[in-house]
Specification:
38% of the residues lie in helices and 9% in strands. It is an alpha+beta fold and 372 residues long. The protein folds into 2 domains: 128 residues, no CATH class; 222 residues, Hypothetical protein af1432 (Orthogonal Bundle), CATH 1.10.3210. The strands form 2 sheets. Strands 6-5-4-3-7 form a 5-stranded antiparallel β-sheet, with no helix packed on it. α3 crosses α5 and α4 packs across α12.
């Protein structure tokens, strides 16, 4: 399979993975379905950045799920129920918080059972229910970061619980502010900045959640240089969970399509975040994050520093900047797989960015589209 940006989809291409569009809904399109102009328009309308397409030439390239689809659907259904109940009631019920803890445990168990703990962007971007899918994505990313920091299962579960609840306070913010396409006014931004404290004040009344979980919720918008909110904490003053959530939260936010901004690709987001090390983010946590997230997801076409084009075949746990690649020659044929981490001939070769050459997206897809 290969990953093709939405702008390069053509009629006749066949999907290699389902396209899920919402909690409890049937997939928009299923694996094996052949794209039509109408289907492509629907994908564009939903602001989906790209999809996996079947390719006879790259049929051995497979994307492995970080978290099972069944567990993701279960988690999203429960997150939605908890958030919506909170929007109507004064407090979050103790039974709901126990459900969150159980979900956190399940996510940790599922992720740690995966031999290759590297998350592809496609694992996080297959739903359009942003509020709920964002909470789940931040939890998945936080678990990955925590695992590379050496956290045990109990600590990882607490971290995941904090991540699942970190945006609960937004359910008390005016929806017009949350979805506003233009820049927020000073008054609107002041209202938005209250959501971490709103959630913290309500959650602490339950007496169920550990203080570390509450601290993560309250402080996930603090920034390493002290420029964040609500308290303007800096450096190690910021609770550890909050420093982890800050990285996961920003990454998922900027790689998601929003009403006011198009999604960034993974490599663009990571470049931005690394440029803000020790400014917005804790550098040690960013290093753990880089070991967790695929800079270039499996199936992505990339350009190399020597001018060649390649396909990402496999990401390396612990070093996602040096994946296994397959060079694509000018005539469309391929080399054997090359491990950038261990192949001496490629020790000085780096990936410079995504490939934008349209003809590579047709390789082995069997597209029947003949338009110019």
């Amino acid at each position: 399979m290969i990953f093709i940006p939405t702008d390069h989809l053509k009629a006749g291409m066949a999907l290699a993975m389902d396209i899920d569009i919402g909690i409890g809904k049937l997939p928009l399109l299923t694996k094996g379905q052949v794209l039509t102009p109408g289907f492509i328009q629907r994908i564009q309308d939903l602001n989906i950045t790209g999809v996996y397409i079947e390719s006879s030439q790259f049929e051995d390239v497979v994307v492995k799920e970080t978290v099972s689809r069944k567990l993701k659907q279960e988690a999203l259904t429960n997150i939605k129920k908890i958030f919506e109940n909170y929007s109507r009631k004064t407090l979050v019920a103790d039974v709901s918080l126990r459900t969150v803890s159980e979900l956190a445990n399940s996510l940790v168990e599922n992720i740690l059972s995966n031999e290759e703990i590297v998350v592809n962007l496609s694992d996080l971007k297959d739903h359009d229910d942003y509020t709920y899918s964002h909470s789940l994505s931040v939890a998945i990313l936080s678990i990955m970061i925590g695992s590379h920091l050496g956290f045990g299962k109990r600590l990882l579960s607490d971290l995941a619980c904090s991540a699942l609840l970190h945006d609960l306070g937004k359910m008390r913010i005016d929806i017009k502010i949350l979805n506003k396409q233009d820049k927020l006014t000073e008054e609107e931004f002041s209202a938005m900045k209250k959501h971490p404290v709103i959630a913290y004040e309500h959650l602490k009344k339950s007496k169920i959640l550990p203080s570390s979980v509450l601290a993560g919720v309250e402080s996930h918008h603090e920034r390493f240089d002290g420029s964040g909110y609500p308290k303007g904490l800096g450096g190690d003053e910021i609770p550890l969970f909050a420093r982890i959530l800050a990285v996961a939260d920003v990454y998922d936010a900027i790689t998601s399509n929003r009403a006011y901004r198009k999604a960034w690709f993974a490599n663009e987001a990571i470049e931005y975040m690394m440029a803000n090390a020790e400014i917005q983010f804790d550098y040690d946590i960013l290093k753990a994050f880089l070991k967790s997230v695929a800079v270039y997801p499996v199936g992505t076409f990339v350009k190399l520093s020597n001018g060649q084009t390649a396909l990402i075949v496999k990401n390396q746990p612990g070093n996602t900047l040096r994946p296994v690649i397959r060079i694509i020659r000018d005539d469309g044929t391929c080399t054997e797989d090359i491990d950038l981490l261990s192949n001496f001939n490629y020790i000085s070769i780096t990936i410079t960015g995504r490939c934008c050459d349209s003809h590579f997206f047709d390789l082995g897809t069997g597209s029947s589209d003949t338009r110019n």
